[in-house]
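User: For documentation purposes, I need each entry recorded in a consistent format: the amino acid sequence on its own, followed directly by the corresponding structure tokens. There are two entries in this batch. Please keep commentary to a minimum and don't merge the entries.

Assistant: Recorded as requested. Entry 1:
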Amino acid sequence: MNTKFAVEWRKGPIRGSVSTTAGTISAAIMRGSGKSEGACFSTDGSPARLEVTVQAEDGKDLRSILVKIDTQERPFSFFLRDVSKAYPIYIPAYGVAVTQADDDRTYEQIELDVKAMNLVTELQRIENEPEENFANAAAHTRELASQTWLGLSRDIRIFGVGFRGVGGEERLWDWVQPRFHGFEAKLPENEDKPVCYRYMLGRGVGCVEGVSRRLEDGSLPILHASIQDNDVVYDTVSFVSYESSPLNADTLRGTHYLAADGFGHFHMLTEEQTALRERILPQEMNREEETVLYFRAVATNKARVPRYAWFKNVVPNAFVLNDDKQYEFDGDNGFVSYSEDRVCCVSKLGGQPLRTEETAVLLPPGESVTFEFYLPHRPISWERAEGLSRQSFEERWTECREFWQEKLSRAASIKLPEPRIEEMVKAGLLHLDLVSYGLEPDGTIVPTIGVYTAIGSESSPIIQFMESMGWNDVAERALQFFLDKQHEDGLMQNYGGYMLETGAALWSLGEHYRYTRNEEWVLNIKDHLLKAFDYLTKWRDRNKTEELRGKGYGMLEGKTADPEDPFRSFMLNGYAYMGMSRLAEMLRNVDPDSSARVEAEAQALKEDIRQALFAAMASSPVVPLADGSWVPTVPPWVEHRGPLSVNGEGGKWLTHGSVAARDSLLGPLYLVFQEVVCQDEAAAEFMLNYHHELMCTRNVALSQPYYSIHPWVHLKRGEVKPFLKAYYNGFAGLADRETYTFWEHFWHASPHKTHEEGWFLMQTRWMLYMEDGEDRLNLLPGIPSQWLENGNVIELDGIATYFGAVSLRVESNLEQGAITAKVVCHSDRKPNTVSIRLPHPESAAPATIIGGSYSASRQTVVIDRFDGNSEITLRFDKR
């Protein structure tokens, strides 16, 4: 069996060979001058046509064959099955096209025919559309409600809260579930199984959902919910405080980080760490007082006639029937208990002990009645329950509000024209803090990621957003976790066998240095840093073998995520490079010799990665885009040819709900973020284009979308509209739209996932400000232009940058024809250059620019030789 195809080049000279994964090759020059012999060929400088015959064995499916055109410059590969006269493989970036042999068109003719269709790529289409906004994104994406986690921060004793299917899977009840971080709390009364406390407001579950929720002030971990049951509305408040002690920064003790670490799913402890944890665990688990979920529901009759309000008190582990066999209710004091000294809930109605478990109260029009319960994390004694019953809900509520407000007061202030985003920034910072566990005031913190323990990679955006908001002390304590748990050989590994943590942790440590320039801290941890570096270099040395030349020479092999893929992946190696690069920076002043050694190894690794990348690109099949062109692709690791999801070499690659997860979420696009590939290189554009069209919907990756780094790449390339498309559709589809809690996946997997929330927060940070090199700060590089509509103000006060604390105020007064901005750097480490992007909402160009030079294409004012304090005014002609 044989088949023929033709390769048309725009111009030569071209020299190379043709190879396939099966069969034999013969090639002939059919247009232009040159020579060919077998599978080898060369042409002169004229346009050239090469016709190739593939002879395969009988029974071999020609369509599964991968062909490589191996030229000195711009080699590429394609599936033989993809060759078509109707849809030629047209690669304008390489000036080449592949078509069927009976198609006698030249490259120029093929190009004209493709362009005549007037098509655009999907990314070009986004550029031609209006800017994305939340309303449009919300209308086109799924809505995922999530349970709400409430707690104190630092303390693993937290509570999950939900209402009749909104925010959880408890479809029959309103509910509260105590947790030790990733694990539901277990009780001996429930055969050492998790306990969930269920109750009911109103008549029950009906055809109308009627539930709305909101965080206090839009951001504090105090949950407000409203349940409308016809004419009666139940307004609720839930928060966590102590059983008896006041809640403030001085009384907050927290939980030892090793104890907390063990309550994160997929944690990894050495034998020594396990032994230490077992010694401290009894003390950590048996505290003098419990954390308590304080709950209040105020039922109000909105009708003009009397109406009933119904309350069903807390029941441990109720299901369809409200089984009362495992607990007792005492109507004299409103206690729910397992035994005389095991009280699990204290309930009140109208300020007095609740007398009956099920209550109907007839309310006159406009009247209200209050139902409360106080639920300790684990049962307490009768005496302690009596003390708990005397607590004032109002006083505890005020105290809790002040506790969280004080935390926010120590962070940078960000005020935006879009309240949802402003609230999400504040709420997000507190969500991260809520599940960052350790002993106060200065112990090591484990920066957990939802129900899981910390990972060097997934914890990085959590730590770095804390840095960005000025919480450098908290970030440093979180980084200490990776140093404290470092293995004797230098490996940093805390989660499920992941092998990328060492490089990723070094990167975050290096970012902390960029924020603080604390060289004393570097000296204190230098031995840890160099031990990690030595581990990476020995790992590299194992892979410097001749058989790996061109196939991942010097690259690290190992699992990067949940799938057992022990390959030389680009993501793994990019993190190793970035970690080494940051380490060289950290050591530059305190240990120049070590710094030079680290830098040399980092650059050698970078070169090995780049060689492997371009070799893999040449051997991977090109794929079509929406404009009729084709682009090269790259596999996630060197051991494969092309994206796994196109199944060129078979295999079963579906995981976590997507066939594209490995290609997209763990793929080679990370190399742009990891500073191995420049954002302006052709390879970056290739990867962005095929990633978007093969692996995204509305420019959002599938499954666990915040693993995909492409929004950052868009921003670095100045592609604001594609960034905003990814930004808004990402959180509109994955975060709870009322409480801002993030899921891990689109299929209700892993609540309160702070890794996803951390990347959203970092995307917001980069949208507002992003450093560029060692001497430039870009302000507002990705904001929506509607934020500068008349009357709007953007104010960033004390944001943390590589150049110290910075403040920015931008005010739009377009009715008077002006946009003004003032930027102040509060540090001697000020950047040499500051740019401020000030997009007019109608894309108008300013008539006058005061305070800097103006780039019309970027709608940006550039301030050279920035002295630390600048004011800018853009004046526009009034229309």
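Entry 2:
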Amino acid sequence: MKTELVIDLEAEKQEILKRYRALLRASKSTLQKGDKKEIRKAFDMALESHKDMRRKSGEPYIYHPIAVAQIAAEEIGLGTTSIVCALLHDVVEDTDITLEDIEREFGKKTAKIIDGLTKISGVFDTNSSLQAENFRKMLLTLADDVRVILIKLADRLHNMRTMDFMPRHKQLKIASETIYLYAPLAHRLGLYAIKSELEDLSMKYLDPDTYKFIAKKLNEKKAERALFIKKFVEPIDEIVHEQGLVADVYGRPKSIHSIWNKMKKKNIPFEEVYDLFAIRIILDSAYENEKADCWKAYSVVTDLYRPNPDRLRDWVSSPKGNGYESLHTTVMGPRGQWVEVQIRTQRMNEIAEKGFAAHWKYKESSNDNGLDQWIQKVREMLSNPEANALDFLDDFKMNLFSDEIFIFTPKGALLQLPLGATALDFAFEIHTGVGATCIGAKVNHKLVPISYKLQNGDQVEIITSNKQTPKEDWLNIVVTAKAKSKIKSSLKEEKRKIADNGKEILERKLKSLKITYNTDNLQKLSYFFKLPSTQELFVNVALGKIELRDIKEYLNSEKEVETRGPERPENLTVDGVKNKIKGGESDILLIGEDMQRIDYTLAACCNPIPGDDVFGFITVSDGIKIHRTNCPNAAQLMANYGYRVVKAKWNKQQELTFLTGLRIVGIDDVGLINNITRVISTDFKVNMRSITVDTNEGIFDGSIMIFVNDTEHLENLIKNLLKVRGVTGVTRFDA
């Protein structure tokens, strides 16, 4: 029996007004004369347009635009134009209102921002990801107005906060896209609070068990942590005030996602993550005294507690590319554990929390233009017309994520490059011509090859030769998007010349064999030599890889080719794959919306076993591949190729076994291996495929590949292995 949803319209009306008033309160600080009227006008338009729409939770749809506007005002610090755009961000897409209507009511600027926010509809090349194209469109508007991205982030944050009512496969797709694109974007724009929340929320859906486990652990120790922070902070507070500094000293917990990252990176259990929180010292200093005050506070902290000399990070003297300024040090606390201390002024803190928006506010006093440079880089990438959206995304992500290093030119000018940049990147950064003819470099007056990885503070001089041209393997040497796109377009140009040459040669050869030179025959030839395009055919002919005798061979087999015709990969849809592989004996995995039994293969990157949370991914040549939802590649696949992801869940199956790996660490003890193998083979009757063991000065580290039935079987096995004397940790690993 379906329960009828009873809606109290009067109560909803009151709630909408309450939320609207809260929004006005949040935007109070930025309101100018006449702004309130504009916001009211936008609110009325949104209310009217969305009046019959509801969200998945059953709430009125208007709650969403109000919440997005609230985030834009309160958490990002944006002004009236952005609040208006946030209120109207869905009307063009979801209702009858057009961009012309918006321009008439609110002006060109607002219409332009909303156009940037409205997803692109229309026909795409199906192999290119829709999300990637949307993302590119969003960035194109960044060239005009960065508010598009900030409102888009507010929109995404609210959607992530209210995703409980979505179907599971939608949650996975949206969470993957968030962790893959939006969190790095927030990071790059300096919005750390939003970045952390987006990462945590993504993890809540992508890896719910780990998320709940860490959240529970954090909660258990809350009181104990508060006491520790209080004791740690008191003496600092006292001395800072004695020194005449006005400061706010407090502790704040690290995000669940960053704790999980630390556990993975260092391969340690939760109990061994010491820096579960950071201590912040926020100084109230005049702009001209900022540096001196930060170092004063630093000396107070390091007099009280011993610092770790390797962990001092000074972003006060040279701020990060996104404008982040702060002094970080790690000190030994009173209970023998490391504590991270961050020292910054109120101005720096606002830039760290609100990033871009705060930048505008301090533009006059701050001479830092790192963000402007970054937008310039994005523009360069967007202006490369040949970039396929997905290549573009990967290049973009790489430049987005990276931390910077500072490199000096021979004359002492400073250039900023991403971490991992090479001498060749530096050459392209100076000028395309310099990059294309680069044969080596002098780093700090020492000769190095073009692939040399630069270190922070290196001084670099590029050596060129006009005989040099870009090579294919250069793409593996460079990391900046600028260098990549310039090398690609230069190689394309080079290839075109070779292909033109090959085309003439092929024409002559075909004439001598009395074969008509036409598109049809060229296609057949490409197909025969298994080449992706006729251009590749021309290139191979020019390079002498295809000769006259090869073409004669083609002539002999031509009859067969004619009857078969070139194959094209079948359309990448679930139905396409279903038709191809109907039948199949498999009985243990149900795939697709209607949960049918379809053939599949298990992905080698994450070795899923029954009981794991999984999804299917339609590949070009191997049918459906099954991945774990927390597979290292999952976020990228779901974010870029959402339309090729299908639901999959395990069915109760007959006793089949699946290969998985366990890493066992412990203290080496007599008979330890014997005890481990006994648990595996005798108690659990599990077959082992391989075992490799390494013992180093009393520490045992082993990897075992075993066959198990499902996750429950595996978890019980892990529990029993942990009982073996000497074993301190057992973790499952991906292949």
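Summary note for entry 2:
The radius of gyration is 30 Å.
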